[in-house]
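Notes to self after the Tuesday call (sharing in case useful).
The group wants a holo model before anyone commits to mutagenesis around the pocket. I volunteered. Ligand is zinc ion. Logging inputs and output together so the record is complete.
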Amino acid sequence: MISCYDIGGSFIRSGALQSAGTVEESERIETPRNDWEEFVQAVKKAAATATSRISISLAGAYDQRTGIADVANIPCLHGREVEKELSAALGLPVAIINDANAFALAEAVDGTGRNKPVVFGIILGSGVGGGLVINGDLVTGFGGIAGEWGHGPIIDPAAGGTLSRIGHFACGCGLVGCVDAVGSARGMERIHSSLHGTRLSSREITRDWHQGSEEATETVDAFTTLLCRALSVLVNTLGPDVIPVSGGLSNDSKLLELIDRKTRDLVLASYAEPLVVRGDFAQNGGLHGAGIFARRIFGSVGE
Ligand SMILES: [Zn+2]
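Result:
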């Protein structure tokens, strides 16, 4: 049986790949973040029923060529050859895919992007990420970075207006003013604090926005302007048929509608249908994508 895992900063979710291609989730346990031995033991425990092969969707950057992972939320994985080391510890073949790529693959094969040539799946959650699938094939690119649109500075100090009142936030990648630092849920919170001097969670900001608060409206406007400008460059570069979204912010349909409208207003092609939409696998793209990845890497579903 092929076992699939979705390993994030909070939980390790596990499930078994079914013959129909779906992944049935069986359990979730907390992710040990700081101790490699504890991490291996937790994966072993979650993998107790695994009998043949293991496919893992992993949060954070993962370079398939070198096998090196860099997961900000799970420091004990930093710089390790996770695939090789886990495989040795478990005594089973292990294949690892980045979580944004797993989500994009799930959407392209079985979700909103089914039968569409270019699918760019994005994650708008605690961070900003993405994955590109062209004609059903995942594009990983040089160094595995394809789809990582969350990094690269976009904040312009000379922009003027509301945007010039937003601070230049440091990003986890070492640069300042990245899309990730302003376009994520945390980015929305930083923008709000920068503009209004009050610290609210992204949930509170969007709730206030729904209720017509002027301050929250200004925050959401600045947030979506920055996010959609960056996204529009990607749309013009890739020509996606659909941009499915996952991550915490994808649960707010009004916010997604605004992001979709603003993005479509900025791009060269005229999209008649919504382009930025909530993914069919917004909740379980990691597990489902790990299942598709397993079938591709390991071949058949059975023993
Ligand atoms: Zn960055």
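Two things stood out.
The pocket of zinc ion is lined by residues 151, 171, 173, 175, 178, 180 (CB under 6 Å).
DSSP finds nine helices and twelve strands in the chain.
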